# Entry
Amino acid sequence: MAHTFLMEEGRWLLHGNWLERDGLPVAVKGKTLVAWSQENWFTWVTKLVFPDSDRQEIAFQYRGRLDAGERQYTFVLQQSLLGRVEGEGWIAPGSIVQRYLVLSDDDRQRRSGFETISRIDDNTYHLSSGILTGHALVSIMEAVLQRQT
# Structure
């Protein structure tokens, strides 16, 4: 099973829910763009908006390297909510799994996160993600990514 998300350039629409501890789900929508350079570097940019809420939008800008035939990669991420982040990803047969650590945190915060992007078909993926402070989940997002054709 070949992945189309991340492994190929493309534009994706996102819709789902954002949840925070002790809060109700908030609708989230977004757009994602994946681009590749000839040197096996990818750029992945996402903008999330919360249409039924006064929450500020969240912007993500990933940059990583994945050599042909490899299943693991590293990336850096600049995110408007967390700041500068470093992480790693694994390409599994049915999903892409990432984990990351926030670089700008002190010992009191120790924020980290994860993302699992599961393939439904060539044009549809399910995204589950979470942000942790220490060992506690503070927010999660569940969403569907649909490729724009």
Q: What stands out?
A: The chain has one domain: 10-147.
